[in-house]
Amino acid sequence: MSLELNKILGAVLGTVTFTLAVGFVTELVFKKEPPAKPGFEIAVAEAAPAAAATAGAPAAAGAPAAAAAPAPAAEVVAPIAERLKTADAAKGATTAKACAACHSEDNSGANKVGPGLWNVVNRKPGTHEGFKYSDQVVAFGQTATWDYDNLDKWLTSPKALVPGTKMAFAGLKKPEDRANVIAYLRTLSDNPAPLP
Ligand code: HEC
After folding, report:
1. What is the atom index within ligand 1 of the atom nearest the CA of 136?
2. Most buried in the list 86, 105, 127, 176, measured by CB within 10 Å?
3. Which residues line ligand 1 (CB under 6 A)?
């Protein structure tokens, strides 16, 4: 009798367990798939509301900031060849007083903390006589010239153009200051290089 009951209970339990197991496995199999597909399908539908939500939130609080942000990126610096057309060498001479702490600017070509700047336009970097350059500037000179473009980059940030240079000068942030200084550097020669 109790053996019969055990069999029945066993059968019931077995069925329940089997049902649960099937349900569990079914869930594993089918729960996994749906997220993959709807994710792809919903992406289309949700992309717009999501974008609208994120765009909407800052739009309320920071619309001016959002509008102002693209402005600096959109502000394109004219190439140095263009800026030199309106550059002012006299103003450049004033700005270049900051350079004179380290550079001689007369035709003595004397070296100070930095190499003499006489005839620097179109010179090979790292080649001024008697100056002990960093290896980095000498290496830069293997492939480059101090043309207007490179001078513009150099004066924007010497360390960005030639990492490891020992010219301890942060750079001239204003494109027009650099153009003026370069126009002035050009005059430091008996034979100024042609303008671009
Ligand atoms: C704190 C000192 C210092 C100041 C200020 C400074 N320089 Fe220099 N400059 C140097 C040194 C040092 C070097 C050599 C860099 C090297 O060998 O890595 C150098 C190198 C140069 C070179 C490369 C010359 C060559 O023969 O290859 C140019 C061009 C130059 N400087 C221009 C300027 C100009 C223009 C200014 C001002 C806007 C300026 N520097 C301000 C110290 C200075």
Report:
1. 18
2. 105
3. 96, 98-99, 101-103, 113-115, 117, 120, 123, 125-126, 128, 133-134, 136-137, 146, 154-155, 165-169, 172, 181
Calpha distance 138→131 (Å, rounded)? 11
pTM: 0.70
Domain annotation for the chain: domains and CATH numbers = 2-74 (no CATH), 80-186 (1.10.760.10)
Q: The tokens of 135 are what?
A: 């290896």
Contact yes or no for 109/129 (Cβ under 8 A): yes
Q: CA 40, CA 81: separation in Å to the nearest integer?
A: 51
Residue 182 three-state SS: helix
Each residue's pLDDT tens digit, 39-68:
544 444 444 444 444 444 444 444 455 455
For 32, the token pair is 């996994």
Among 104, 66, 78, 92, smallest CA distance to 172 is for 92
